[in-house]
Write a structure and sequence with these properties.
Distance between the termini of chain A: 36 Å
Structural class of chain B: alpha/beta
Order of helices and strands of chain B: HEEHEEEEHE
Shape of chain A: globular
Helix content of chain A: 40-55%
Number of helices of chain B: 3
Number of strands of chain A: 8
Strand content of chain B: 15-25%
Oligomer: heterodimer
Shape of chain B: globular
Largest interface: A-B, 48 and 41 residues
Chain lengths: 413, 172
């Protein structure tokens, strides 16, 4: 504290013997529009400069791990929806892939490609919200307003596939609930046709914008070494210059069949994080196009495949459940978890929109997991927040928070 | 060079001998157990060794096995070698009456909140942790909610019990 005063000079001369403190304690949050949810930061500020920060979390802690210990596999999917709700399809599929790994289910290629399409759409939806919110926090509302209709279009695609939009509950163990309709593919084509132009314009609004650059360059920076030590993954780690990506290093869902680059930054500051997310949206578009082409190559009976042939785990179709006794019985058995799970321990991770999302599942042969632990990337980023904001201005702290893409649902699982 | 599970096992056993036990590889991930006094020593070795290079801590969590007397709580570490892209799982078992385990915060900054979470849910006392207090739950809580003796459901309910989930239990 005293060296800060020496450095910046004391502007107000306090009367002799004054007991007034030099710093102010400021509660930023828990429910403040700039905190994107419920995060409390107890900041010690000297003027507008942050001397120290302490984060308090737990305001929406919903005990997912405890609840999961009493639920059969399918009933855990809605819990994963609510982790990072900006990209819930990725969480769903990560969870289903964990189950498939435990149960030894092999999915057909077409399912893998359809999953890749959905996951990359989710990544775009997540990144475009994050990047446009960083814009809003620097005072630029236009971009946010402008790209929102394309998130809407992505949600319409989800809706066409599973019937819901935000917390999608999309997919099944072994594949999808139903085949993609023609409308879904038409909407996807429209997205692929229109989004590149929109993204280009969105980029033009920010990337070389003087105000945006001055607000973000150099603030909230972290070195590659510290980022690794803090357990950073995803765009936040890549912005610091480490090209670690689960999709490339441990490919799942046939990611090895696609050509794409891993965008990396160099300084790890807010601007680099923005650039990395932006570049990732281009890569995701590229992956979706490749996957869509591959999907179109399936002809005849193969083009109808949308799930693996695992009647023990794959829920029967709804219309059969209503009309056929056998299907009704299987539906009941699967929902109640009467199919024995093998014993074992599985760790499976996917590249969530915000970093490595891991599922550690211990099964004791019961119907519910004995223990389920989520590795939530937001939880891991947020502990670096006090280091990232130390010595920064209060306004930088806000941008740092939004550019880390903290989602309260994933933080407090 | 591709690092195999056998190679990791050989290096670990050469270095620590009998201390490495319960070696297995469920679903391909090399996992082993060490005595709780040695968790830091082994992690430091895995970190420093210029062949093994497990320098990324993916995850820490705990598991409660109430029937396993003297080793009720397991702390599970997932470590990752980013260069060769190999993951391993290290386990430490501890008595629930004296759940003292050395903290990994000196090695990994990321262990800080993960250990706080583990303490919050299971009561594992991480010796040497700089700020070991509850993180997701309220400070006034005097129990550790993810232990198995605190079932999720209301104890007076009779429609749901463990038998429904394939592990014994009884309807009261």
């Amino acid at each position: 504290m005293s060296e800060l005063i020496q450095k910046h000079g004391q502007h107000i001369k306090l009367p002799e013997g004054s007991i007034e403190k030099q710093t102010t304690t400021l509660n930023l949050g828990p429910t403040h529009p700039a905190t994107h949810g419920v995060f409390q930061n107890i900041l010690e500020v000297d003027g507008e400069r942050i001397v120290s920060a302490e984060q308090t979390v737990g305001y929406i802690h919903r005990a997912f791990e405890k609840i999961a210990e009493r639920r059969p596999l399918y009933q855990i999917t809605p819990l994963t929806d609510r982790l990072n709700y900006c990209s819930s399809p990725i969480n769903n599929m990560g969870w289903h892939m964990t189950c498939e790994k435990l149960l030894g289910v092999k999915t057909p290629k077409r399912v893998d490609y359809l999953r890749v399409i959905i996951m990359e759409l989710a990544r775009i939806a997540d990144h475009l919200i994050c990047n446009s919110i960083v814009g809003v926090d620097t005072g630029a509302f236009t971009g946010f307003l402008y790209v929102m209709q394309y998130r809407e279009l992505i949600y319409e695609i989800y809706e066409e596939i599973c019937g819901s939009r935000l917390t999608t509950n999309i997919g099944r163990i072994g594949g999808f609930e139903r085949n993609f309709t023609n409308t879904a593919f038409e909407k996807l084509e429209r997205f692929l046709r229109e989004y590149p132009g929109v993204l280009k314009e969105f980029e033009g609004l920010f990337q070389r914008n003087r105000i945006f650059m001055e607000r973000t360059i150099g603030s909230g920076a972290i070195s590659a070494e510290r980022a690794l030590n803090y357990g950073f993954t995803g765009p936040n780690l890549r912005a610091a210059g480490v090209d670690y990506d689960v999709r490339v290093h441990t490919p799942y869902s046939s990611y090895e069949d696609f050509n794409f680059e891993i965008p990396v930054g160099s300084t790890g500051d807010n601007y680099d994080r923005w650039l990395v997310r932006n570049a990732e949206m281009w890569q995701s578009l590229n992956i979706i196009e490749q996957a869509y082409q591959k999907v179109q190559e399936f002809k005849g009976a193969e083009a109808e495949v949308y799930h693996a042939d695992v009647p023990e785990y794959y829920l029967p179709e709804k219309k059969d459940v209503y009309t056929k006794m056998e299907a009704l019985i299987w539906h009941f058995k699967i929902i109640m978890g009467e199919i024995d799970m093998p014993k074992g321990e599985v760790y499976h991770s996917v590249e969530g929109a915000n970093g490595e999302l891991g599922f550690y599942l211990i099964s004791d042969g019961g119907r519910a997991p004995y223990r389920l632990h989520f590795r939530r990337p937001c939880f891991i980023y947020y502990q670096a927040y006090s280091e990232l904001t130390k010595g920064a201005m209060l306004s930088d702290a806000i941008i740092t928070m939004s550019s880390l893409n903290l989602i309260a649902g994933e933080l407090d699982a | 060079m591709s690092m195999t599970n056998e190679y990791i096992q050989e290096r670990l056993v050469n270095q620590f001998g009998e201390a490495i036990s319960n070696i297995e590889a469920p679903y391909g991930m090399f996992s082993f157990e060490v005595p709780k006094e040695m968790n830091l020593k082994v992690m430091q070795f895995l970190f420093d060794d210029d062949q093994l290079k497990f320098r990324f801590l993916t995850d820490i969590c705990a598991v409660h096995y109430p029937d396993d007397k003297g080793r009720e709580l397991a702390v599970v570490y997932h470590l990752h070698n980013l260069e060769d892209n190999v993951r391993i799982r290290m386990k430490v078992f501890t008595d629930i009456n004296q759940p003292d385990v050395f903290t990994a915060t000196s090695l990994f900054s990321t262990a800080n909140w993960m250990e706080r979470e583990t303490y919050d849910f299971y009561g594992v006392n991480f010796v040497g942790h700089p700020n070991l207090k509850r993180i997701l739950n309220v400070d006034e809580m005097d129990y550790f909610p993810l232990r198995k003796e605190f079932p999720l459901e209301d104890q007076t309910r009779i429609d749901k019990d463990d038998e429904m989930f394939g592990r014994g239990g009884s309807i009261r």
